[in-house]
Every structure is written in structure tokens, then in C-alpha cells.
Amino acid sequence: MKNYEGSCGCGAIHYSFAGEPINSVFCYCKECQVRTGSDKWFGLWVPKDKLTFTKGSPASFTRPGDSGQAMNHLFCGDCGTNLCVEVTVADFYSVAAPTIRGDQQLSPKMAIYTASAPDWAVFPEGVPQFDILPPGLGD
Ligand SMILES: [Zn+2]
Ligand SMILES: [Zn+2]
Q: Which of 38, 72, 82, 85 could join 94 via S-S bond, C-beta 3.0 to 4.6 A?
């Protein structure tokens, strides 16, 4: 089974997870724009029990998601890198793909919250797009 390892910019926090992500998603919601300073968050969805922090422990802040359930944002308290979001309504982490180390050949499988994207956003070709979420997800 493939093992993924990632870390924040300063190296204080390391994490790993085994197996392929259950989804890989470009999210263009406003919150992700604010958190990343770009048009989107590239999230790898990993079941909560598959991911472990192998060095350090992340700082966090919590906000309510669209579902009303908590979204726990985990980030490095030293360098500020966003590492992942714990989506409590569905018990998975959305791991920031750019924090994965090594050449992992990761690509998005869907684009969500595209209705919130800035005018200059460029969507990936050949990938399903959803104004908000695909039917059955997140509601
Ligand atoms: Zn750091
Ligand atoms: Zn988002």
C-alpha cells in the first residue's frame, strides 16, 4: 500500500497516511480562498483513522461548515502552513495536497463550489464541476 508523507513549511509538523485518498478535490469556496491566498484549496480526502501526525501537533481553529457541523482547520502554529481540515460531519480530513512530500502525481477528480470562484479562476479540464457540492455530498 502506498504511504503518503507530508509536512508544513518549517518542518515542525509531519503527518502520514497509508492508501489512496477517497477523493481529490479543488474547492473554490470563499473560505478556502481566504485560507490559501489563492483561488482554491486542493484537498485529498483521507478517512480520519488513516491519518497520523508523526511529529509535532498542529494548532487549530474551528468554524461551522455549511452543514452546521464543525470544520476544524489544522495548521502549523510556527509557520502558518495549512495542513488539513477535519470535516467532522463526514469523519474525514481534507489534506492540503501541496504539503505532500515527494513526487506523488496527484490530480483533482472534481471541482466544487465553483459558483464562488473568482472571475480569473481556471478550472481543470475533463473534471466534473459543481456549483456547490455534488448531489448527496455534504447535505
Ligand atoms: Zn511549520
Ligand atoms: Zn472550500
A: 85
Which ligand number lies closest to the CA of residue 87? Answer: 2
Distance from the Cα of residue 109 to its chain's centroid: 13
Q: How close is the Cα of 84 to the center of ligand 1, in Å?
A: 13
Any domain includes 131: no
Residue 109's CATH number: 2.170.150.70
Identify the pLDDT of residue 66.
Answer: 84
Taking the centre of ligand 1 as the mean of its atom positions, its distance from the CA of residue 109, in whole angstroms, is 28
pLDDT at 38: 96
Contact yes or no for 23/45 (Cβ under 8 A): yes
Residue 41: give the domain boundaries. Answer: 3-116
* Ligand 1 geometric centre to CA of 53 (Å): 13
Structural domains of the chain, count: 1
How, if at all, do strands 110-112 and 23-27 pair? Answer: parallel
pLDDT for 138: 53
In a domain, 73, yes or no: yes
